[in-house]
Amino acid sequence: MFRRLKKRGAVGIGTLIVFIAMVLVAAVAAAVLINTSGYLQQKASSTGRETTQEVASGIQVVKVVGYDPASQPASGKITKLGIYVSPNAGSAGIDLRSTKIIMSDGDSQAIFQYRATNSINVTTLINKTLTSGSSSNYIVFYDTTNNRWVKIIGNFSATDISLSYSGTTANLTISNANDTIPASGNVTISAVASSTNKVTIIIPGALETFSSAAHDSGVVNNIFDSTNLDAWKYIVAPTEYGIIALQDADNSVQEAYPTLNAGDLVVLTVPVGGTTDFDVSANTITVQDVSGTPAITIQKVGFSAVFGDGFQPRQKITGKVVPEFGAPGVIEFTTPTSFTTNIITLQ
Predict the structure, then answer these.
(1) Cα gap 289→61, rounded to integer Å
(2) Which member of 2, 23, 251, 325 has the lowest number of beta carbons within 10 Å of its beta carbon?
């Protein structure tokens, strides 16, 4: 009898052990399921929020206008674009610093970004242009004393360019250049035979820390006024654009952190043809020949725009205004068969 009870007890303990093991396994499985379901729930919630933001947010291109600088009736080429944009309904705030403009004329495609308050290296920009080795690339300076442009074509070899410093002032010297700068009239400084002919571009150190933004606020008389609007004056490269905040009730479209949100209307100023002028503001650049005279004072530096001379009649242009997240704004138009006014509505 005792042996029988002992055997039953042993069987009962074994059953209990199996039961406890099953409970432990179930507990572990339940913990894994709970953790997994919690993670999936949070992931689904996060994905839902991001998807909603992606779908609801975006930029709308309201209007595109172009500018032809030729005398009326205009018969030249469109050299500037004003792209009116606003956020989509229900859109979250859009950081224009991270917003790119992609544009194509069928032969080439360019990507533009906002010119924010970042310092620039003028010496590097000029040197890069001059040593490009192609006569189609050039840099121009506006001679404020004689009211004319001085153009230096970029067909110099690397050995023709020398850079020296006097304190913080950079002296960029070009050999094999025309050593005569006329007192009047436009002039092209080009390569010549004699290595003794030199032109020196004197760049003050203050320009190396120049950090003004291409930004304006409020209603303006003329969105293409490159003389008075910072949105044009302080574009320092052909692949940059400026901002005019026409409508911004909460002052969110600031020059350092321009955020486009509900109710805002801004114009993106885009140079597409001719010469992109960079106004050096209170600073001045000096260009002189090998003898040191005559020296001319410079207040503007120019670079060739990405689409050459600009958009011609009957030309198809496509592109997008692409925010960091959300739907992009569409740019698509064909220029008119003829330009009869300076300002042309394109889209």
Answers:
(1) 48
(2) 2
- Select from 153, 156, 160 the least CA-distant residue to 195: 160
Q: Which is nearest to 100 in space by CA: 324, 306, 341, 347? A: 324
Alpha helix ranges (H) inside the chain: 2-56, 122-130, 230-233
Residue 97 and residue 184 in one domain: yes
Distance CA(40)–CA(45), nearest Å, equals 8
Assigned token pair, 52 = 């909603």
Q: Are residues 218 and 341 in the same domain?
A: yes
Residue 41 and residue 167 in one domain: no
Q: What is the pLDDT of residues 111-123, one digit of tens each?
A: 999 998 888 888 8
Closest CA to 88 of 326, 334, 343, 346: 326
| Residue 270 forms part of a structural domain | yes
Instruction: Clarify whether residues 47 and 145 are in a common domain.
Output: no
Could you report the per-residue pLDDT of 80-121, keeping only the tens digit for each? 999 999 998 878 889 999 999 999 998 989 999 999 888 888
Range of the domain at 336: 59-345
Give residue for tokens 């704004």.
Answer: 329
Residue 21 φ then ψ, to 5°: -60, -40
In a shared domain, residues 85 and 32? no
Do residue 89 and residue 29 come from a single domain?
A: no
Extract the tokens encoding 93: 């705030």
- For the stretch 28-82, pLDDT in tens is 887 787 777 777 667 766 655 555 555 557 899 999 999 999 887 788 899 999 9
Q: Per-residue pLDDT tens for 186-208?
A: 777 776 666 678 888 999 988 88
Say how far apart CA 205 and CA 189 lie, in whole Å: 24
Helix and strand numbers (H, E) in the chain are: 3, 21
Q: What share of the chain is helix, strand, coil (3-state, %, to 5)?
A: 25, 35, 40
Give this prediction's pTM: 0.79
265 - beta bridge partners?
247
Same domain, 311 and 243: yes
